[in-house]
Write a structure and sequence with these properties.
By secondary structure, the protein is mainly α. It has one domain (about 1-280). It contains 13 helices and two strands, in the order H-H-H-H-H-E-H-H-H-H-H-H-H-H-E. Strands 1-2 form a two-stranded antiparallel ribbon. Helix 4 crosses helix 8 (about 145-165), helix 6 runs parallel beside helix 11 (about 230-235) and helix 6 runs antiparallel to helix 13. The longest helix is centred in the C-terminal third of the chain and has 27 residues, at about 200-225. Mean pLDDT is about 80; it is low at about 135-140 and about 280-289.
């Protein structure tokens, strides 16, 4: 989960570096092509059947992930990198809430504590005077990118719960494969309606989007299949300070003193979630690795 957070934070850098000239559908398509090729090669190398067993749920996971990806990219284009990442990282809270009724995974007090600490870290950065204000947004964050970020968090949580539900029937590489398999046909028609030729630099950033997203998806899927959903996603809060770091390094976004407090809260959330257990509401088979 920590590795996935690092990869996704670098994916955010690549999307932000594109600058919004290319349509979001074209970014999703490029990511899908790169990821599909890598996934197919990995499946063939492992000698696995790529189509899986629970195909309806696999397709649903791919569609939810694709919709969430559109929202995340639109938020990254319209908001400062750190602010967009902070708002997206409401998804551990949504995941913890959804995993209880949908997966019968009742979070223990440490998980709820980790979710609360992570949410407080999000609130510190998103509040007026936090990273938004430092980036010139303050209380005036644009409404549409803000809504995209929140929708992305909810859709991501639904996708992560579905990944967790697939743990006993599907290999992680099969789950990863269905994401670009669904994203490709959902993005190609939109690209054909408004094609924009990327420059050489943009092509490099698009390649980076595909590679880092693929690495993040693989690490994320293995993490969710080996750990309860609420606990696993609480660990991924570590992406918040990483995004702030990349924002300063690559884009010159200033970070206020409150970012230190936020980073501390996120670190405590991660450490607490690593020690946390989950009390299942019903008995069930052990997750397969």
């Amino acid at each position: 989960m920590v590795a996935s957070a690092l990869a996704f934070s670098l994916m955010g850098v690549c999307v932000k570096a594109l600058g919004g000239r290319l349509p979001v559908a074209e970014v999703v398509l490029a990511r899908s092509v790169v990821s599909l090729l890598i996934s197919w090669w990995m499946l063939r190398r492992a000698g696995l059947n790529p189509w899986g067993q629970r195909r309806g749920l696999l397709v649903g996971r791919g569609i939810l992930g694709t919709a969430g990806l559109y929202c995340v990219y639109l938020a990254l284009i319209g908001l400062p990198l750190a602010v967009a990442t902070v708002l997206q990282y409401l998804h551990p809270t949504f995941t913890a809430l959804l995993a209880w009724p949908l997966l019968a995974e009742r979070p223990g007090w440490r998980v709820w504590g980790a979710v609360l600490l992570g949410f407080m870290g999000v609130a510190v950065l998103a509040a007026p005077g936090g990273l938004g204000a430092a980036a010139g947004a303050g209380a005036g964050l644009p409404a549409l990118p803000l809504l995209f970020a929140l929708a992305g968090a909810l859709l991501s949580a639904l996708a992560y719960v579905s990944v967790r539900a697939l743990r006993n029937s599907e290999h992680p590489l099969v789950v990863v494969f269905y994401f670009p398999l669904m994203a490709l046909p959902l993005s190609l028609p939109l690209v054909l309606l408004q094609p924009v030729a990327p420059t050489a630099a943009e092509f490099g950033w698009l390649l980076g989007v595909g590679v880092f997203t693929q690495l993040g998806q693989i690490a994320l899927t293995y993490g969710l299949m080996g750990m309860a959903a609420a606990r696993a996603t609480a660990i991924s809060y570590v992406q918040v300070p990483l995004a702030a770091l990349w924002g300063v390094w690559w884009f010159g976004e200033s970070v206020p003193a409150l970012a230190g407090l936020s980073a501390l809260l996120v670190l405590l959330a991660t450490l607490l979630s690593l020690r946390a257990g989950v009390a299942p509401a019903v008995a069930g088979p052990r997750p397969t690795q």
